[in-house]
UniProtKB/TrEMBL annotation:
Catalyzes the conversion of 4-hydroxy-tetrahydrodipicolinate (HTPA) to tetrahydrodipicolinate. Gene3D superfamilies: Dihydrodipicolinate Reductase, domain 2, NAD(P)-binding Rossmann-like Domain. Residues 104-240 form the Dihydrodipicolinate reductase C-terminal domain. Its EC number is 1.17.1.8. This is 4-hydroxy-tetrahydrodipicolinate reductase. InterPro entries: DapB_C, DapB_N, DapB_N_CS, DHDPR_bac, NAD(P)-bd_dom_sf. The active site is at H131, K135. It is an enzyme of class 1 (oxidoreductase). NCBIfam families: dapB (TIGR00036). Belongs to the DapB family.
Amino acid sequence: MIRIGIIGSAGRMGKAIADAVAVAGATLAGGIDAGGDALELARASDVLVDFSVPRALVGNVGAAVAAGVPIVIGTTGLGPDDHQTVDDAARHVAVLQTGNTSLGVTLLAALVRQAAERLGPDWDIEIAEMHHRHKVDAPSGTALLLGQAAAEGRGIDLAANSDRGRDGMTGARAEGHIGFAALRGGSVAGDHFVIFAGEGERVELNHRAESREIFARGAVRAALWLAGKPAGRYRMADVLGL
Ligand SMILES: NC(=O)C1=CN([C@@H]2O[C@H](COP(=O)(O)OP(=O)(O)OC[C@H]3O[C@@H](n4cnc5c(N)ncnc54)[C@H](OP(=O)(O)O)[C@@H]3O)[C@@H](O)[C@H]2O)C=CC1
Ligand SMILES: O=C(O)C1=N[C@H](C(=O)O)C[C@H](O)C1
């Protein structure tokens, strides 16, 4: 049986993942939180699942590489340096990094890419998201993942064509940009809205998470799929065959 080690095990997602490991009939190798020994956990695991905080990424990925075990990274709020860290690690072990492990969002990203490509540059793209009051990063990892899908569909660079929050005298909308808006409140597990606004019509593609269970189930599915895979950077679409 495949042994899964959880980083961020006492957190909201860590607890949900532990439940999903049991449901999947896999073995829980253990879990750590702040101050825990990631290398010790990695050595006891066949695969690591990291849903913690961005500042722990370098140490967690380093432990995976040192122990030679694959790692699923679900932590969001990652910056360009973190993505470089992930790319470097993927030369040594199998790494799957994603802002959303759910089946629904993985499909949504494919639909968004297709819509952006087919509708063309005259359609403005806006991405809105709502999450629970405890969430610390914005825009959500999922919103950025969906923005990246839209940018790929359009053949543009997301970082150079984003509006991340408008306030005050912003001027008219920048042509071709992808806009992001973040709402926070209550216990919302994660809602995402991708709006294609054209002249006289709109196309809206949405996803609503009803609980964290969908992310946890997807994370465990990804971990079981990743265990034993050769080094490389993988995506949820690879796991789900989408
Ligand atoms: N990809 C996806 O599908 C999803 C991703 N997420 C992302 O997962 C992450 C966690 O979310 P959530 O569970 O809600 O957050 P929580 O704040 O509930 O949990 C985070 C956990 O990480 C632990 N932690 C903090 N620092 C470290 C460290 N240095 N090493 C190891 N563990 C550490 C915390 O422990 P302590 O209390 O000791 O500080 C805590 O238990 C977020 O980035 C979130 O956006 C969430 C849902 C789905
Ligand atoms: O912090 C959360 O809760 C979530 N984080 C992920 C994100 O940033 O997109 C995924 C999900 O939406 C829940």
